């Protein structure tokens, strides 16, 4: 059980539910979901991780992102446990390895993910990154999975603008629901071309590592005096400002990963922070958008 009182949980959830992102098929999903990379890999952490995901769902972060790659399926198994009995509340996303994305392997990879997740369908199935399999073949496989009801929609991940243009011109390529890419205040290369291109084509971005995951970039965000001052103004933490920035438009869904309860709560509460035009221009000065094309950041 969470230490949060039910009234607080409802308040955070209600605020989050006001901030939805609409997919091109009209489906509305929350602007904040939950990442699961590294979850399920340490037996001792399992209970805490399951509780974190369940609290996240309670708070309205009902989109859960996983992948067959994460812990060789252990992340999917953990998610399966966390959503047992609550499948209908969740928008479930998983990802296929590029080397499983050909017609001969895609169906089996999806079946294995479904088994590990304990469900009969995914809400969204993503190609984890572009590999050697021709896009046309992956699209054909994804469309087949859709017809069979194994997935409701498909998308891609780590595609830069040129890849998206190629995908868009392939048969059925325009059925792509989203592109999941790295995006945070300290890494905003996509603001130059990919984000505008996707907005023009009515395809939201799914932002991974929205908290800069760790390392020096993260420290820069936490310690930046401008962010600290803004966080004080809103009575929140620096990283909540960074997260609120990522979801500042209706075209981005962010999927922070958090195991510690306080982190889960802070992330959900970030949806209540409405940054003003003035805040955004102050942040632009410290973390400017690029003025020319930069290659997509990938981890
Ligand atoms: N498509 C791709 O190629 C790709 C690549 C990378 C990631 N992803 C997806 O995106 C998800 C998120 O990215 P990520 O896991 O790389 O990094 P992230 O969400 O940017 O950062 C996760 C780290 O931040 C900490 N954290 C979470 N909330 C916090 C808060 N409010 N304050 C301070 N620290 C906080 C977490 O700690 P605790 O866990 O200890 O709470 C964890 O160490 C992944 O889990 C995965 O699902 C996809």
TrEMBL record:
Cited Pfam families: Aldo_ket_red
Occurrences of domain NADP-dependent oxidoreductase (ranges): 32-286
List of residues binding substrate: 128
Sites marked Lowers pKa of active site Tyr: 95
Listed SUPFAM superfamilies: NAD(P)-linked oxidoreductase
Catalytic-site annotation from UniProt: 70
Any one Gene Ontology molecular-function term assigned to this protein's record: oxidoreductase activity
InterPro entries xref list: AKR, NAD(P)_OxRdtase_dom_sf, NADP_OxRdtase_dom
UniProt protein name: Diketogulonate reductase-like aldo/keto reductase
């Amino acid at each position: 059980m969470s230490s949060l009182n039910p009234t607080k949980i409802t308040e955070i959830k209600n605020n989050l539910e006001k901030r939805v992102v609409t997919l091109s098929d009209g489906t509305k999903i929350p602007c904040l979901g939950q990442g699961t990379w590294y979850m399920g890999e340490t037996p001792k952490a399992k209970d805490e991780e399951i509780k974190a995901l369940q609290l996240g769902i309670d708070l309205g972060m009902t989109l859960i992102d996983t992948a067959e790659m994460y812990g060789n399926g252990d992340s999917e198994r953990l998610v399966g446990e966390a959503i047992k009995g609550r499948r209908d509340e969740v928008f479930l996303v998983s990802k296929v390895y590029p080397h499983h994305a050909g017609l001969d392997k895609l169906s089996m990879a999806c079946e294995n993910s479904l088994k590990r997740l304990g469900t009969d369908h995914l809400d969204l199935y993503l190609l984890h990154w572009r590999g050697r399999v021709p896009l046309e073949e992956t699209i054909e496989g994804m469309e087949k999975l859709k017809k069979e009801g194994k997935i409701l929609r498909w998308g891609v991940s780590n595609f830069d603008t040129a890849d998206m243009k190629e995908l868009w011109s392939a048969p059925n390529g325009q059925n792509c629901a989203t592109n999941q890419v790295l995006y945070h205040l300290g890494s905003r290369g996509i603001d130059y071309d990919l984000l505008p291109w996707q907005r023009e084509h009515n395809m939201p971005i799914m932002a991974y590592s929205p908290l800069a995951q760790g390392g020096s970039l993260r420290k820069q965000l936490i310690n930046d005096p401008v962010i600290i001052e803004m966080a004080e103004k809103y009575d929140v933490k620096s990283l909540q400002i960074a997260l609120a920035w990522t979801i500042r438009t209706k075209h981005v869904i962010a999927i922070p990963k958090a195991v510690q309860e306080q982190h889960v709560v802070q992330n959900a509460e970030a949806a209540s922070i409405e940054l003003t035009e003035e805040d955004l221009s102050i942040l632009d000065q410290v973390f400017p958008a690029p003025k020319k094309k930069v290659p997509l950041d990938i981890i």
